[in-house]
Structure formats: structure tokens, C-alpha cells
Design brief:
Two copies of one chain form a homodimer. The first copy, chain A, is α/β, with parallel strands linked by helices. Chain A has helices at residues 5-15, 25-41, 56-64, 75-83, 96-99, 103-110, 120-133, 155-166, 185-201, 239-243, 275-278, 331-335, and strands spanning 20-24, 45-46, 70-72, 89-94, 114-117, 137-143, 171-178, 208-212, 228-230, 254-265, 268-271, 289-291, 298-302, 307-310, 323-328, 340-345, 348-354. In chain A, strand 6 (137-143), helix 8 and strand 7 (171-178) form a beta-alpha-beta unit. Chain A is elongated and about 70 Å long.
Chain lengths: 362, 362
């Protein structure tokens, strides 16, 4: 059935039914290679963020393609990856609430990880976890340069944390974590340059200087001194990445196969996939996904298991029973909704891949 | 630790870490009793929608409290409930894409279910599944009276479907499914009355006439001829149900325990729970949840694992390391994000309850 989408649809619906979240491994191969090449070209190491796929299956492919290590956003993700034999892991967040459960110490005793902090309270929890694990823990300082999320907001704040790290035998300074906004790279350079001088004065070196984000592939390499980049979404891509100019439709590896289950009237249709399949993330876009077969049909509203189609601008309207493929607005959250992805290659179903690190509390 | 929220927070974070989605079983008991009483008072049977909890644990409590049967929205939910011994199940949707996989026939052969349709294509799939299962299947006709979701839009359309059902030996007419909008009950009455006459002429009786929705508790009993009501959210309640006037804060059984992991600056704080814990459903409300300890702190933005707090109107600002409890805007989708709920009773942790029917494709 090589590249016959109609036969593939029939196979998917007869084997799995709909909705069905499907990943095209040929596209994934290409996306992994593109991401690696972008990092290679910019002379920074590739440390993909696995929050997008949450699966050791894809992590191993990324490592095999040249990735230096991985980035996680949750302790549970790191646990799953460590269990799968991945050893070079940054957990890119203040792991305060997870550390207090004793689970960070348990992981650290088994597979030492690198963690991030932007405040002394988190550092204190890391020191306790490291002491419990009897293994000093490597810490990166998270720096805020435009996204308005976590991160210290000045080099001075970062230096205060660096001093705490330096003075605590259970903490080892490992470097700096940046997630510049798209226009925040010059500001990031100033921040880093000033901070680097201060670190030098303290006798510290940032072995890792990490930038992040798939949209930031358009800026990769622009931070002089960066040693690695962490991007997540690029392995699958989505409508947001198309809007950001870093992917095209053919780079989108994940499609939700969904049936038109009702045509309430001439202007309205209903898909059997809603917010419990895609989530309600719009990513700032109009509509909740792009329907390959009916680009002018807008998924304008979700209920939990239904996508409501506005067909008023649609000339070629879908019929009840049609199976359509939808590119999600935000693939990271859509993949996180299902226990497994149906995998296709060469136009045929070849595997079912567990999304192992999803559904966990911490 | 009876009713000492500080001790309970300490136990939860030290046992599970944060974020942690917690259900208070005392509140659940009360909510189940209230829903049953509302149905009893209106003289309609109670057929709770289990999409909110997706767990046989709670289904059994609802049955024990007097529920006649249950409502599901997915085939996978019905499979899990049938496996747990629940026998009276309505799947309240056009199960077209799931039926074509053969999974409906497999379920029907084991535990006969009632299904819903608003079109002939779905009916045709039901007839095939019933034939494959060698067991006629009971079908309700879904009728649209205000929500603008699925459902036939006129009594005439419903009668056309009723005729198809009547003429097919594998299909049995079981009744009518309504989900009136809040102001759509008089319209629903007209629709039903006209349809009932037509059904009588065909020699058919709607044994089940179902109304739906927790917000519709304010209207329950207003449809003359209704035999049962299906409500889901009322078992847990949430910020949307408070806004709808059918619950208060003390009726909200599910809280996400989350840590303040960063205080970027005076106006901004960060929780360790974001869209992968709550989803991005706003339910039309400002902010993404209600923080019990800091009602004036607004969760104004999510990233996947972070909730960004706007503290500009907050006099008593949370500190890094504080554990706070958040009432989700939409509890049905929040519960669907985790594999298990931590259960408390009498102010102490007593159980961990699997959310068994989540993460499934169909």
C-alpha cells in the first residue's frame, strides 16, 4: 500500500478505529536529521527535548542520529528515560515539588542527572536530594531573557545562585540555561557576557550554555558561547511550527485520523476527536487543527470527544463516514493525550509505540 | 491529621511530590448523594456520565447510591466499565469510527450496550456490529435542541431514523437522547411531543428519554416525558460548575496540589502545573483555575508544565516552596490527564485510584 493514503486510512480504521493518533516514521527520520544538521551547522551540540514524544523509542533514534543527550521537563520523564538506559539528562525546570517527594534522590542515586534552578529554595532541595543519594548533583542556572517564564532576571541574581552552588559540596555548577524569545538573542548575549565575567571572577566555568526552542532554530548559533541547543517539537512539528516558519505541512509527522460522524446540517459537521484528543491549545491560531483533505473546513469548537466543523467556507464538504487527517495545532500536548501512537512507514502500519512517560503525576 | 490542610499538604508532597491531582472522597460522597437526590426529586432515573472520572471505583459508588446505569462517551470507556461488571451502559455518541474497527461488535457480544445515532451511516455500522456480535443492539436517536453539537435537528429526521431502526432486525429502538441548552427546554418539549406522536403512529415507544448535563440540574424535571438524566461533572464539580450556579467551592472534590517553584519577580510567580496537568480549557472563565490559598493570584498563562501567576492584584503573595491547591476550571479534562488520583478522606490520604479509561484511542 506504499503511499496510498486511502488504503492506509482503511487499514487504520479497520484495525484501530478512530480517533487514532498516527506518527509517520519516514517524516520523523527526516525531522531528526534536519534538527541534527541545524545543530551541527551552528556548531552546538543537540540535546533534544523529549517532552514532545515522551518515548524511549524516539530518544534512541535521536541519540543514534548524533544527539549528545536529552532534555526533560518532568522528573517522571527522566525516570522513564533513565530506565531505558539514557544517561546524559538535563531536567530543565525548578524540580522543587518533585524533589521534596524523595524521588529526585532515588533517581540521582541510580542515574545522576543535571537539574536547573532559579532560586535558593530549589537549590536547597537539590542539595538535600544529592545528600540523600550520596552523589553531588550538577546544577544549571536558568536565566530569563524574554519569554517571561522561569529564570533569574539579572546576571547578579545568577551570580548569587552560583555562589550558593559553589559553597555547597553536594552541588556542582554545570552551566546556564537560556530560552531566549525570538527577538531576545542580543539581550541574551549581553546577559551571558556579563554573567560569564562574574563567573570567571568566582573561578567558575559554564561548561553547558544551552539555548532552546524549535522556533529558535531560525536563531540557532547566534549566541556566542552557546554549547548546545534543546528543541522538542521539531521531531514531529505541527501547525504552530508551520506558523513559526520552521516547518511545512510535509514535515508534520503526526496526524490524528478522525471520522466525520455527523453532518448536523449544511454548515456543520462533527468529528469524533475533540479536546480529549487534541487538548484546547490553539497556539494563537484560528481553529483547532488543519484538515488535510478539507483545508477550508474549520475546526472551530471542541467538546471533549467532538470537533465541531464550520463548513460555511468549505466548497468540498466532507460526508458522514469520511476519515480525515488533522495536523494538530500543538503536537506536544496532543501526543500527551494517548497511551500509544500508531506508527506508519512507507505508507503502511508498522508498529504501535508507547508514549511511556505520560500520565505521571510528577 | 483530621482536617489539617497543612499536615495533609506535607504528607502529599512528601509521598507523591507535586503536581498532584487529589480527590476528596468525603466531598465525592456528598456530591453523589446530591445528584441522586436531584434525580429522585425530579422523578427521573439517574444515569451518570462517567467521562468525568473514568474509573470503575466511582461508577460503583454511583450505582450503589441509586444510579440506574451509566453513560459513556467513548467505546474504550464502555469496555473498561463492562470489564468491571457494569451492565446498563449507554454510549452517548455516533460511534461510527469505533464501530468500524470491530471493537463495538466485540463489546456487544460480551456486554450488550445501548448506542446513539443521528444519521443512517452510523445506523448501518451499528447493524453490522450487531450482526457480527449476533446480538441486536439497542439504539437511541440523538436530538439537537440548542447545544449545536450532534443530533437530528427536526422530529421528521428522527422519524426517518426510527423507521430504519424499526425495519432492521439487528437494531432495536430504545429511545431518545437530548442535551438541551439551558434555555432550550421548552423547545425540547415541543420537539419531543411532536416526535412522540410520530413514533406512536409507527408503533414505537421511547422507553428511554434522556436529558443531560450538570448545569441542567437547574432544569431537571422540566421535560414532561423524560425518564432519566445523565450528568457527569457533578461528581467532582469545578470552577465552571460554580460559575453555572450548580456548585460552590466546598462541593469541588478535585484539587491540584502544586508548588510555587519560582518567583521571577514581584508580579510573577510560577507553579509546577501547566497545560499538561490542567489542559488549556478555560470554560470561558478568566484564568486557568482558582487558588484556594490566594484567590487574587491569577493563573493567567500556561506552558506545558508551568502555570504563570499574575500577582499584581495579590496582596498576600505566595512564596517559593509554598504548596497551593487549585480548583480546575474544567475537572473532566484535568482528571483525564493523569493515570491516577490521590484520594483523601477525613483529611488523610487513604487510596490511589486509577483513572482506568483514559489515554485510549477509541
Amino acid at each position: 500500500m506504499k503511499n496510498d493514503p486511502i488504503k492506509l486510512k482503511t487499514k487504520i480504521i479497520e484495525t484501530f478505529g478512530t480517533p487514532c493518533t498516527v506518527v509517520d516514521l519516514d517524516v520523523v527520520d527526516s525531522n531528526i536529521a534536519i534538527a541534527q544538521a541545524r545543530c551541527d551547522d551552528a556548531r552546538v551540540a543537540n540535546r533534544p527535548h523529549i517532552k514532545t514524544h515522551k518515548s524511549p523509542y524516539f530518544t534512541k533514534q535521536q541519540i543514534n542520529a548524533g544527539a549528545k543527550g536529552i532534555t526533560c521537563q518532568k522528573l517522571g520523564e527522566a525516570q522513564v528515560m533513565a530506565d531505558a538506559g539514557i544517561s546524559d539528562i538535563i531536567i530543565a525546570t525548578n524540580l522543587l515539588g518533585a524533589a521534596r517527594s524523595g524521588k529526585l534522590a532515588a533517581l540521582q542515586a541510580k542515574t545522576p542527572v543535571k537539574v536547573c534552578a532559579d532560586n535558593p529554595v530549589t537549590l536547597s532541595e537539590y542539595a538535600k536530594a544529592a545528600a540523600d543519594a550520596n552523589t553531588p548533583i550538577e546544577v544549571l542556572i536558568e536565566c530569563e531573557t524574554g519569554q517571561q517564564r522561569a529564570g533569574v532576571e539579572s546576571p547578579d541574581e545568577a551570580l548569587q545562585l552560583a555562589k550558593i552552588i559553589k559553597d555547597n559540596a553536594m552541588l556542582k555548577f554545570a552551566g546556564l540555561l537560556f530560552y531566549p524569545s525570538l527577538d531576545g538573542w542580543p539581550r541574551t548575549q549581553h546577559f551571558f557576557d556579563e554573567l560569564k565575567l562574574g563567573l570567571n571572577d568566582m573561578g567558575l566555568t559554564a561548561d553547558i550554555v544551552s539555548t532552546g526552542g524549535t522556533p529558535n532554530f531560525i536563531n540557532i548559533g547566534q549566541l556566542n558561547g552557546a554549547t548546545e541547543h534543546r528543541a522538542g517539537t521539531c521531531i514531529f512539528n505541527d501547525r504552530m511550527m508551520i506558523a513559526a516558519g520552521v516547518a511545512t505541512l510535509k514535515d508534520c509527522a503526526v496526524h490524528v485520523y478522525t471520522s466525520v460522524v455527523s453532518r448536523a446540517n449544511d454548515q456543520r459537521g462533527i468529528l469524533d476527536a475533540g479536546s480529549k484528543t487534541f487538548t484546547s491549545d490553539t497556539g494563537g491560531l484560528d481553529g483547532f487543527g488543519y484538515i488535510l483533505e478539507h483545508p477550508t473546513a474549520q475546526i472551530h469548537k471542541f467538546s471533549e470527544e467532538h470537533g465541531i466543523l464550520d463548513l460555511s467556507n468549505c466548497t468540498n464538504k466532507p460526508a458522514i463516514g469520511d476519515v480525515v487527517r488533522v495536523v494538530p495545532n500543538h503536537v506536544c500536548v496532543a501526543v500527551n493525550m494517548v497511551d500509544q501512537l500508531v506508527a506508519v512507514r512507507g505508507g503502511d502500519v508498522v508498529d504501535v509505540i508507547p508514549v511511556s512517560a505520560r500520565g505521571m503525576l510528577v
